Each structure stands twice: as C-alpha cells, then as structure tokens.
Amino acid sequence: MSENSEPKHRSVWTHMMTVPFRQAFVDVAGVRTRYVQAGPADAPAVLMLHGTAGSWEGFCANLASHAEHFNCFAIDMVGCGFSDRPDYDYEIPVYVEHARNFMRAMGIARASVMGASLGAWVAARFALTHPDATDKIVLLSAAGLFANASNMTRIRNVRSKSVEDPSWGNIKSIFDHLLYKEESRVPDIIAVRQAVYRQPGMSQTMNHILCLQDPDIRPRNLISESQWRSIMAPALVIGSLADKDEYLETAKLVSQYMPNAKYVEMHDVGHWPQFEDPDTFNPISLAFLKA
After folding, report:
1. HSE on the CB side for 254, CA within 13 Å?
2. Hey, what CATH class is 3-146+223-290 in?
C-alpha cells in the first residue's frame, strides 16, 4: 500500500498527541469548570469559547499551533460540556461573567478571546463589557446580530431531539450541519457530545441553554449595530463560505461595523472553520494574534 493510499485517521488525539497540555477543573464563582490549558504560563493568554451546548474539544485542532506562542485556555462554558449545570437560564451576560470569572480564577488579567458561533457572540459581548480585559477577539461563525426564526427553530429542534434520545444518529445530525465535509465528522467528536448529552438531568439543562432560541429572550441579548461599532478591540472575523443561515451575513456585516476588524473568507468549511480546515485557519489566526 502506498503512502498516499493509506487511510487517514483523524481524531481529537491526533491533534493533541504532541501538545504539552493539562485538563483540569477549577471553581469559577461556584461553578466547577472543565478546561484544557496549553502553552507557556508567561505568554499572552488566549481564551477559547465553543458554540451552543459544545465543549472545548472544538478547538483541539488549534491548540498545538497556538500554544507555541500563547497561554491557551479552552473551556467548557457554564452549563456546557462537563462543567457544572446550575439551574437557571444561560443568557449572554451569564456566559460573559463565567468567562471573566474563569480568568480571575486563573489569574489572567487580559486575554484575547476566540469564539465560535455562540462563543463568538460571547466574545463580542465580552469585549463590550470588559474592554480592559480584552486584547483581541477572533470570531468564527459570528452570531448575535440577528434573531432568525427559522434558524432558532432548527437549533431548538435538533438539540432537543438529541438530548431526549442521544443516539449516535441523532448526535451525528448536529455535526451534519456544523461540518461541511463528511470526513470532518470524526467519531470521537460525536462520542464526546454523546457523553455530554447522556449526563443525568441534561434535558433540563438543555432548556436553559436553548433559552437564547426563545423569541422573547433572544432579542434582549442581541448586540446592536451601534454596539458592534463601539467594539474597539482588534477583531479577526472569519467568513465560512459553506456555512448556512445568517452566520456568513453576520460575519460580513460586523466586520464592517467594528472599526478595527479584519475579514477573511475560508472556502469549503462550515460552522467550525477552525476544526474543519486548521491548516488554513491556524496561520491566519496566529498572524493576527501575533501582530
């Protein structure tokens, strides 16, 4: 068998196997929070925030390259992954303060914040709420500008179905939307999400997570055009050309609104460009963060 014909196996571990890292839990204002850390302790900090009902593994393909230059922290946000799931709705200010309190717990005064989808929404609001704690922001599948009824219904239906019956097929259906190419939907990414959704009480937690898909709740969490224009932090906005719904439009618009934004498009990637094509994304992100 030639080298080119050998099967190519991709997993979380193939991205992490050469990375010096530690996974741990820390008390964040009463919320036991799961995180992974990689990179020199004295390097500038980068905080990585996943999307709706996700976990830190969404950034597994970015830690090796970024940890060469930055002190990287990818976290399971409050209510998500294997972090604690307190019994209240998780609106955007809740996620923002959880991220800020995580930084305090880890002794981080300032950080660049990288977010995907919901994480991008949180990163932008973080830059508005805590400008003195924000170096730069990286927005992947930017969100938080619109309330799109059809997309909100789709997210609620798919996530609710998957948590009520966390079968392999139902969990994979989430990634059929998030990842453009079938080969990107690797089994252990699906397995991690399945383990998360199988936790006791996860149905109630999912209701708290999905509050942002409620037409009565989402509008008060949105970031207005004038607020986007007031974000002074340097911003890198990735436009995923194969992403659906309002995310590509949001990326284009907010990159025009923010005065210090750079917009870069990526081809053949869906909702997780940082995972689907890390060979393209990582150099773009590093050039921006190091500039």
Report:
1. 36
2. alpha beta
